[in-house]
Every structure is written in structure tokens, then in C-alpha cells.
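User: Here's a protein and a ligand (adenosine-5'-diphosphate). What would the complex look like?
Assistant: Let me lay out the input and then the predicted complex.
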Amino acid sequence: MEYLDNDIKYVAGVGEARAKVLERELGIRTLGDMLRHYPFRYIDRTRIYRIAEITDAAGLSYVQFRARVTGVGYAGAGRKRRFTACVQDPTGSAELVWFQGIKWIEKRIEVGREYLVFGRPSFYRGELSMAHPELETVEQALSHKAESGMQGIYPSTEKLSNVLGAKGMYQIVCNLWTLVRERIADPLPEALRTRYGLIPLREAYYNIHFPQSQELLRQAQYRLKFDELLGVQLNIQSRRTARLAKSDGFLFPKVGKAFNTFYNEKLPFPLTGAQKRVIREIRQDTVTGFQMNRLLQGDVGSGKTLVALMSMLLAVDNGFQACMMAPTEILARQHFTTIRRMLAGTEVTTAILTGASKARERREALEGIASGRVNILIGTHALIEDRVRFADLGFVVIDEQHRFGVEQRARLWTKNAQPPHILVMTATPIPRTLAMTLYGDLDVSVIDELPPGRRPVKTFRYTDAARLKLFGFMRQQIALGRQVYVVYPLIKESEAMDYKDLTDGYEAISRDFPLPQYVTAICHGKMKHADKEESMRQFKEGEAQILVATSVIEVGVDVPNATVMVIESAERFGLSQLHQLRGRVGRGGEQSYCILMSGEKLSRESRARLDAMCETNDGFRLAELDLKLRGAGDINGTLQSGMAFDLKIASPTADVQILTLSREAAVSVLEADPALATPENRGLQELRRRYSGREEMDFSRIS
Ligand code: ADP
Ligand code: MG
């Protein structure tokens, strides 16, 4: 065991109780975990503010000021009971508040004495107040050495900050440092460090926690980012090498009856040039003897499903089974219906398996797949359950990839002695380097051409005040025989309210669009499966003109006669989600419209998102803009939670340059020593293990 693997509870100031909270709230269990818990910002502890300088407009998140206590007292009752202290400096006054630990603070605080107060300012009617500030007498404060003055502020959670404040956390890191400072081994060989201009690891850790200067802080960040991305790249490159070395990919040399019958007799329209090219690329991959691992990017509506189907037919022609996995029940059912319809009259057999499959459907799928009678299985995550046994799985399609992880893909491999070819499809364009970091080792194909005859969707922004105008427009479109989606956001944290908005909206629409002239269907996650199906059917078959839904229809639903997409509270959706939703219309030859409804008051960022939607239909441009808007510093952002690798400091979008260098480093190291077996590479082996990928991922938060 490495020294840094020791339990965090042994650090002075931690102990059993806090260790438990640290693990539960932040996943910090060992000394190493704590050492890699980096500040997300730094404050200048040498700067002492005047009360008058601390205003709402100044936007300060932590401050310290020097003030005299002029009075203390109690306020509120029961659970609201709190202890308050009034403080004053020559420029103004402020209120300090404690809701917990009242006895303790009451005993220590002295009226008439001067303190250095440190904490998060908040404002009530323009007056400064501070909850649970940290206090030091001025004498105590003066006894510290000033150093560079930069003190780290560590990521925390509400529960954790109840037992461990900003200063407490800092103190623990100080104590930790005295324990571990002599125990830090640098995993990077000297030569590598020199080549990439990296400071030693020990110095990097020291300066990330206790920056001695801005410059050293920058170098520390650079070094630690490099290590993380190198760890990831060592994994990706090793996997790639292993995959290419095995050359145990299934061979699909034949183009046979299944493919040809479909191509010559069933294909409802000519393929676009881009579709043809991608099918050729896939075909080339499957005759090399290597296992294919390919990412297919194509904007919404570019016709990825057809490419998937024709690739699966190639597998069938060569005696293999294929499966296609979709992120939601509705999508899986839709793919199943589309594909079964397209394959009608051919000998290719299909089945479906989802979490909601009834006993009979499930039995048929499981038996058909195990016996080899079924050629193509379509479904949801249920496909990777242990019970699913394929007779001969040769090809796997994963639709809307960002909902599946490396780990889940790996589970598919174990369904065979030999790994199947894998095609992952996404409508969210991702730069190649980023795709590799997110999803591992992939080749990339792009469909950069929409089927002919599509008219670009026109996009408008309405405020809620323009609802009458909106209803008028809907009426007009419906009179032309078209259909309308009305989509509401559904965010976990505000689920109850979101459902209320949705049902209120549904009622309002039903009133304004009354039966029998109009039929409005509704579809959301709380409905019974059969009711949802019925709503979708009504809308698909044109019985209902309006579908009110949550973003379950976000991905992949296909109703070409729908020409209007109304998005309610559009400011609450992310750009890629908005673009996905818009892609639900504009699928037929008619002019289509996307209407973004929002309140009057919008944040700058929301406004930029909605404006961008009105300006362009180009998914690639929107994706780039999205990355910019969401910003590099958003470590806890949605992107991060979808990532296969647990990065603490590096951001594959913001640190592209380091990403490129680390990949170059990984390739050259592995070329010379594929197993990382030499003594100088032992540290790299450890680094590779640390970043070998997450076992469980939360995909629900990805937008
Ligand atoms: P996505 O890439 O978003 O998954 P789909 O595969 O759902 O797109 O295709 C969108 C629509 O375009 C479908 O209705 C499909 O039948 C149609 N389509 C696909 N390829 C072509 C083509 N080559 N020509 C005309 N229409 C096509
Ligand atoms: Mg699709």
C-alpha cells in the first residue's frame, strides 16, 4: 500500500466523524484523495476590506474585514432561533449571524473587542450580513505569516460546510501537508518532465494548495492538468494498441442478400453522398480483421438511422447478429417500428427488448437472440443485462452516444468471446480529441449533408406575453393540415413544479383548441406506459394535431408532418438540447418553425443561447458556441459528469493544448515500453491505473 492510500481520518483535525462526511459528500477517503482535492479559487488574505467597500455590486464571494463588536443578542424562536452580533468599522456596520453552535460562539465573542471577520457576504436591503463567519482577534491574525496571501477555497457541499468551514478545510490541508510532504513520489520520468517543461509533482501540490506566487500557481496547475490528461491518454492509447494488436475483429467480406434486397427493393429514397461515404467507411473497417470502434456524427435529421440499419444488414449477410441500443424506451420502440417496416418482405428478423417489455415480448427476444433466430435486436439499456445472451453478436449500434459510457460498452464486449464491431452515433458534434477523452478510443465519421429537399427551420423568440399570437399561429398551421409539438422542460430538482407547468399548459391549450375540432395529446414520464404509447400513436398517425410533452421527445422522434416546435421556458434548456428539439421538425418538405418561449428577464447567457438558435441551424456551430458559453471553468458542468474519466482540474475543452501534448507523450512512451514495465515507468503505470475510467456514470445529467 502506498502511504497516500492511508485513511484521511488520521489527519489532525479530521477524525472519524468528519472523515465520514468527507467521504459521503466529496468521495474523499484517503490522504491522496485530499491532496487531489484542489481549491477552485483563491482569495487574497492580505487584503482587508472596509465595510463600505463590501457592496452587492462589488460581487465579492469571500472577504475579510476588521471590525469591533458593538452588541450581541438573540433573534427568532424554535428552529429559526439565531445568535447575532453587530460589528462596526469607521465606514459602516454589519450583522453577523449564527444558526448553529450558538453556545460556543456566545462564550467566545466579546463585546467591545476588535476582530478580523472572514466569510461570504450577503445583503439584506443593502445591509451587509454574514452567516457563520470565521472570527479571529486582531492579535491572533497578526501572529500569522502573510506568505503570498493567496488562500485556497475548496469545493464543498452544504452538508459538509456545516461541520467544516472554509477555514477548517484549509487547516486540514495544512495538517495533511506536514504529513505527506516527504512522501510524494513523482510518477513522471525526469526526461519527460524536462521535455514538457513540468515542475516536480511535490512542488505542484505545494503550490496548488499554498501558492507562493501567481507564476508558481500557474505552473502547478499546468503540471497537475498534464498528469490527469496523461493518465487518461495512457489508458486510451493502451486500449487502442491492445485492440489493434489483437486483430480479432469479425470479418464481413460479403455483401449479400439482406443488404442487396434492401438496397435495391426497399430503400425509399436515394442515399445522400455522405451516407454512402460513411457506409463505405464502415464496410472498410469490417474487412480489415480489426475490431471497429467508430463514432458517427451527423446533425439531427441527417439520416443516421439508415446508415445504422444498412451496416447491421452487412453483419447479417455475414452470418452475424446485430443490435441497436437507444437511450429511451420511446426511441427504441420508434426505431423498432421504422426498421421493421423497412425490412417488411425481406427475410431479416427483428425483435425488441426494453425495460418495459412484457413477459411475452421479453421471452421472444431472449429466446430468439439466444437461438440465433433473431437477426437484429433493438432496445434500451436492457440489452446489456446479464441475462441477454446472443448466439453470435457481430455488430452493435449505440444511438445518441452521450448516454452510454465506456464501461457500458465494455459490458457489451463480454457478451462475446470476440468483441463485436461498435458504431456509436451522436447528433452532438464533438472535436475528435475531446471525443476520445469522453468516450475512449474512437475513429470518427461525419455525415455533413442533409437529405435533399429540406427547408431550413425558421426560428423565433416570443416572450410569454405573446401567447395569443402563438396560439393564432398554431391555429393557422393546423388549418394547413400540419401538427405542433409543445415541449416543457423537466428538470429533476424542480420536477413537481415542472409537471404542474406542463399540466397547466395542457389545460390551457385544450381550452383554446377544443374538441371535436382539435385533439391535443399529452406525453410525459409519469404516465402509464400504455397511455404514453397511445398519445404517441395518436400524434404519429395524425389524429392529434398537438402534442404536449416533456423533453422525452428530445431525441430521435420522427413525425414528418409536424412543422411547429414550441419550446416553453426555452431559457432553461441547454443549446444542444434546443437544437435537438428543433430537429424534430423540418423533416418533411414543408416550411417548419421553431418558437422559443421565454420570460422577459433573461440572463446574459440565456439570451445568447436563444439568439444563437435564431441565427443558425448549423449544429456544429452551435456546439462550438455552447462550449464557449458554458465556459472552461465549469468543472462541475454537465460535460464533466458525462466523462468516462474523473478529472479534477483539467478540462478537455479548455485545455486542448495540454491534451494534445499529453497524447503525444503517451504515444511515445507506450511505443518504447508498451507495458510500462521498466522501473522508470512504474509511476506512469500507477497514473494509468488511477485514470482507468469510472465504473458507474450518471448520464441523466447530460444535456
Ligand atoms: P437522425 O440522423 O437524426 O437520426 P433519421 O435517421 O431519423 O435522422 O432521419 C431523419 C429523416 O430523414 C427520416 O424520416 C428518414 O427517413 C429521412 N431520410 C434519411 N435518409 C434520407 C435520404 N437519403 N433521403 C431522404 N430522406 C432521408
Ligand atoms: Mg436519430
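Summary: The pocket of magnesium ion (ligand 2) is lined by residues 304-305, 399, 556 (CB under 6 Å).
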